């Protein structure tokens, strides 16, 4: 079919004005009309793809729109003809893959048009700029300018790569390493000399209201980065380590409105279960998983389903990662004696409809949250554990009674994050005959599985973005009876819960592997070998 389509296109191209003069015989041709319509739609498609690029400024977007409208289709046609001549023997799938890569390269070129106009301002929590805080009259102004430009470039690159963390570590006495955590995996960006990097560290500490002179004592701070289109907050932590000072920067306050249940990896059936739990006036929805498994993102996706105009939503978090304009958000501060437990007590006197607890860490917090769920409040909370079964054991170990669990809990959600395969370079997976036999034995079709390759678009990792895998446990009458049964059942749950929980997540993850969303290797990296 692809060969027939290509032949038709070449026949149409032969009637174009720039083709051989002998080919132009008719003043009107159905092929010309079809080609004209296709050309217009291709122009509009190029403009649409470039216009939605979030890294372009208003000025850069206008230039990119004009360029893509007039030149974009010509560039695509050039690569189309070039690949037809040079790679006519390739399979149609490989050819289409190449075309996608070429178009992505054009999009990256369009992005670079507006990148020159991208400006960023780093401000402390009181609104003072980094240049005002860091620059001093007695210093070398050109060196100050170079340091601040380098600092801003590190922040800009992290934002463009959707990094969740920036780590600046001393490698030895003379070199520092800058790394970004992208899609949950650390990625080394560059190595720079320690003198230059220490100046960058000092500039970040200055805008974070930290003591520049103290390089050994751990410190915490925060700053804000403002661009022409958004404002992003950063939380900074420093520590004295071997060979120098280490800086860890967490990227916060992204737009919570983009988190939706249908975009974070939940199946349709799982979305229905969660929506039913959210519409209830009371009960606790408990999210569990290790650090970095996306629990907060899932919680905000659920909050986006709640009408904040008609329901009083109060959250207590450590720290506040996303800002909800119509919700009351409290940030934990142990130095000011603001803890989860004390904040929860004060919440209950503020007539809340929905209570969000960033993390259940102790017995007092767990009991207050469950009592609130029993007395007419909808409670969303997270806890660090590895499975739904181990979460029940964790709460019991914290001193919560089985009776309180059975009456307060309404839904348990265990989750992990896996990386999505890069759609520009992924290819069908290859397995050994023994593995294929094992898949067949478990009634798993391996023909739809893909494996990572690596290209420029995914920084040669083979992955781009992440999605969640979820295991839901509805606390129905049967589960409540099992919780209330006896110590023997709880003891058995303690032994087998971890194994069963991992097996359930593994089954959910295999659905995404078979669907081509992620790879089998990535699933094993996150969950290990399932049962």
Task: Give a verbal description of the structure.
- Helix content is 44%, strand content 20%.
- α3 crosses α5, α12 crosses α14 and α13 runs antiparallel to α17.
- It folds into 3 domains: 114 residues, no CATH class; 132 residues, Beta-Lactamase, CATH 3.30.450.90; 272 residues, 3-Layer(aba) Sandwich (Rossmann fold).
- It has 531 residues and is α/β, with parallel strands linked by helices.
- The N terminus is likely disordered.
- The longest helix is centred in the C-terminal third of the chain and has 28 residues.
- The chain contains 18 helices and 16 strands.
- The strands form 3 sheets. The chain has a 7-stranded antiparallel sheet, with helices on one face. Strands 10-9-11-12-8-13-16 form a 7-stranded mixed sheet, sandwiched between helices.
- It is globular.
Topology, element by element:
Blueprint: H1 2-13, H2 30-51, H3 58-70, H4 72-86, H5 92-115, E1 121-123, H6 130-134, H7 141-160, E2 165-170, E3 175-182, E4 185-193, H8 194-207, E5 219-226, E6 231-241, E7 244-252, H9 268-279, E8 283-288, H10 295-303, E9 313-317, E10 328-331, H11 340-347, E11 354-357, H12 363-374, E12 378-383, H13 388-397, H14 402-408, E13 409-421, E14 427-428, H15 433-441, E15 450-451, E16 463-474, H16 477-484, H17 487-514, H18 520-527
Parallel strand pairs: 8-12, 8-13, 9-10, 9-11, 11-12
Antiparallel strand pairs: 1-5, 2-3, 2-7, 3-4, 5-6, 6-7, 13-16, 14-15
